[in-house]
Amino acid sequence: MTTCSNRYRMRFVLLMLVACLFTIMGMAAAQEVTPESTESAFTVGSDLTIAALQQREIEASDILVEQALPNGANYSRYIASYRSEGYKIYGLLTIPFGDVPEGGFKAIVFNHGYIPPDTYVTTERYVAYVDALAQSGFIVFKIDLRGHGDSEGEAIGSYFSPNYTIDAISALRSLQRMNIIDPDGIGMWGHSMAGNLVLRAMLVEPAIQAGVIWAGAVYSYDDFEKYAITDTSFVRVPESPGLRRSRAIFETYGRPNTSVPFWQAVSLTENIGYLNSPLQLHHAVDDDVVNIGYSRDLAAVLQAHGKVYEFYEYDSGGHNIGAPSFDLAMQRTIAFFRAYL
Question: Which tens digits make up the pLDDT trace of 258-285?
Fold first, then answer.
């Protein structure tokens, strides 16, 4: 009897140990890192992480016509405004002539690259780009990112702040409120700096049905260290908000390195699993501002993850993919938006 009692006693103790082990494992699972805890783990720059942006409440507002401009070939042109985080953001809005198609017009949020904020003018730059898209029947909203032109707020850059991404998503959500637009037929276009913006927005906002990037930069952030950016138009303002922010991030986490948790959390390629819409890339080999390596590396990541994408290289055209490559690049862009919007 004593041996049997000891055996049962040992079995009871073992069962209790197993129960305790499962309890501890359950507590550990409950305490797994969530997007919320990931965000709070970073003392500087937490708002730049993909997880933080995915949780953020991004507003929409009515789009107001501020000024009528001379018409384009087959479309109206306006200076219009909307709200992003309370700031009044302006932009160039084009609307095709004629009856609204069944379901509404397809639309494109058009995001400009780096232009010195003090010299930025809404109706200048990208004239041929907007005209080609507008003539093809799209509503185009070329937004003036905050701090540019008459848009309120500070110009802080795209790579180390989420502000421009928020402006672009707010523009999309505001377009969705227009009864002449198909709310499920809106895409994004971006150039240079805005390549980072467009892809970041696509990881956050599922309503972006398709994205097109010309000569884009900074996706893994390791690529920023590898290729840098050579832009003679860049105006380095001492103690500007953007410079202060990037310096604080570098001082806290070091230079970009995706073996570091923060740089993993902000890297677009490390979070490419969230991309669910098709993406088209264009880049000229002779781009002397943004190395074509940025786009080649991104294309490799897209291919490795089975994403729907197209990538076109051009022998010439420079950073703006101008003549002789502009017409072909724009034809491909228009065909892509028509296929997926």
Answer: 999 999 999 999 999 999 999 999 999 9
